[in-house]
Write a structure and sequence with these properties.
With about 100 residues, the protein is mostly helical. The chain has helices spanning about 1-30, 65-100; strands at about 40-45, 55-60.
C-alpha cells in the first residue's frame, strides 16, 4: 500500500505546484499596472530529483510580458491541474473497484 500513498502524494504535490503557479500568475495579471510592482515567479532551490518545495520570488529580469502570455500560461496550468485531478479520481475509482468488487 505504500506505493499507493506515493502515487497520491506525487499527484497531490504536483497539483499544489499548479495551484501555486496559478496564484503567481493571477497576482502578476492583477498588479501589472501597479506602479513599482515586480512580477513574481516560482523558484525551485534544488534539482527536481530532490523535489524541493517551490518558493515565490521576484522576477528580476524586468522583461515585459504581454498579458496574453500570462493568460496562455494560466490556461496551460489549468489544463495540467485538471488532468491530474481526473487521473487521481480515476485512480481512486480503480482502487475502490478492486477493494470492493461486489459494489454496483
Amino acid at each position: 500500500m505504500s506505493s499507493d500513498v506515493s502515487v497520491v502524494q506525487q499527484i497531490s504535490a504536483a497539483m499544489s505546484v499548479c495551484n501555486l503557479q496559478h496564484q503567481v500568475t493571477v497576482t502578476n495579471i492583477a498588479n501589472r499596472d501597479t506602479q513599482g510592482f515586480q512580477r513574481l515567479k516560482l523558484h525551485f532551490d534544488s534539482a527536481m530529483e530532490q523535489a524541493s518545495a517551490p518558493r515565490i520570488v521576484t522576477d528580476r529580469s524586468q522583461a515585459p510580458v504581454p498579458v496574453e502570455q500570462d493568460l496562455v500560461n494560466m490556461s496551460t496550468n489549468l489544463m495540467h491541474y485538471q488532468v491530474m485531478a481526473r487521473s487521481l479520481g480515476r485512480y481512486f475509482t480503480l482502487i475502490a473497484a478492486i477493494t470492493n468488487p461486489n459494489r454496483g
